[in-house]
Amino acid sequence: MKRYSFFLLVTIAMMMVACGKSSKGGAEFLDKLGIDADQVQMLADSIDVRIDTTLFHLNNEQGKALLGGIVPEWAEDTVEVEGVASIAAFKKLDNGVSIAFLWQEWGDGGSMYICSYDKDGKFADGMEFINWQALNQSSMEEGSSFFLNWEERCGGNFTNDGFTIHRIYKGMRTDSEMSDFVPQWTIEKKYDYKVDDKGKLTLGDIQLTQVGKVPAEILSLDDLRDLAKTPASDNKVIDKLNQKAATSEVVKADEDSKIFSEVENAIGTIFERNPTGMLQWMVMHPGEQSSLNRFIEKADGFGVIDRETFDAAVEKLSDEAGRAYLRNLTKDWFKSERMNEDGDLDEEYYDDAISTVVYDEEGNPV
Fold first, then answer.
1. Helix, strand or coil for residue 144?
2. Measuring CA to CA, which residue among 263, 265, 234 is closest to residue 247?
3. Residues forming beta bridges with residue 116, ordered by sequence position
4. Region 263-289 average pLDDT
């Protein structure tokens, strides 16, 4: 009886120790950051991550550790992450790599970041899915009797060597704000990601399915936004953007268009993640070799590249001729009509540019 009692006590003690370490297997990387895994959804095979349920809000230390690698400014000591960053779900893969789904709030919306962490719990790689779950309504023009909805939903499942994200993007129309919306077109995409044992992510081919007549501009914009879904470790992303910027839809786009702005946003994201790599690419692709120069020359307009950060990165380059080329390429920054007398973005110009976009009843810009 005494021997039985001894073994029973030992078993209970071991269980208590195990529970103290983590109540969920595979949550060690969260435990190290003081995150209660019981308050975070642990995924099985399917990826059903909702942002309308309880999220575990991260403090500054936790936010910088989990998101600092994909949102570089959050790694800085002066940036406040607390209150805008949360972890929604996580999964530990068979190879020991952990995957986390992290939500960042901004304005009325937000972005879902899917990040990987190595066996020691350190950030390895990641990418961004804007509008993970979104429903946006827009009336077309003053006095119009119809409305459009843009609905976006993401989900997916884990595979033997990674995971797949399924994304549905719909455009819907109604003649009255109170009536049901009728789908006009649907874009369905599947993003297949491989994850190696160090946490590096690789995006394979994106499978596209269209239902209905999707406006050409919508397809072009969606194609450009897929660049954010490319893992941060992909050093070919600049070449991919350069190829997209050479397509006829982008070449024809004027400076006030959504397409022009989307290319600028992509340039800003790539530069933010790897300033030196971006600058070296620019030096190695001068003149007509780059379809991005017309956008970079205007990159100050919507603040997609910070001038101070840009100048500091230029000074780190050892190639004197390269530094001179970059300075000449950006010599007109803060001299464009988009800027006010103080050198800041002219908000009235920005509002006017955005408000000029008008759509017809099928959702096509006119």
1. coil
2. 263
3. 99, 125
4. 91
C-alpha closest to that of 74 among 118, 32, 111: 111
- In sequence order, the 6+-apart residues with CB closer than 8 A to the CB of 359 are 138, 140, 148, 365, 366
Rounded CA-CA distance 176/205 in Å is: 39
Q: Please give the torsion angle defined by the CA atoms of residues 5, 9, 12 and 16, in that order, rounded to the nearest 10 degrees.
A: 170
Separation in Å, CA 348 to CA 140, 218, 304, 344 = 20, 26, 18, 12
What's the token pair of residue 242?
């350069």
Residue 48's pLDDT band (cuts 50, 70, 90)? very high
In DSSP terms, 113 is beta-bridged to: 102, 128
- The Cα–Cα gap between 142 and 139 comes to 8
Band of pLDDT at residue 138, cut at 50, 70 and 90: low
Q: Which helix (H) or strand (E) holds 75?
A: none
232 φ, ψ (degrees, to nearest 5): -60, -25
Q: What is the pTM of this model?
A: 0.81
Four-point Cα dihedral 265, 266, 267, 273, nearest 10: 110
Q: How far is residue 54 from each of residues 32, 38, 39, 173, 214, measured CA to CA in Å?
A: 21, 12, 8, 32, 35
Strands 123-130 and 133-139: unpaired
Six-digit token string for 110: 């937000």
The pLDDT of 198-209, averaged and rounded, is 96
């997209």: which residue's tokens?
244
Q: Which tokens in the block code for residue 301?
A: 């307009």
Among 235, 238, 231, smallest CA distance to 285 is for 238
pLDDT tens digits, residue range 207-263?
Answer: 999 999 998 888 999 999 999 999 999 989 999 999 999 999 899 988 888 899 899
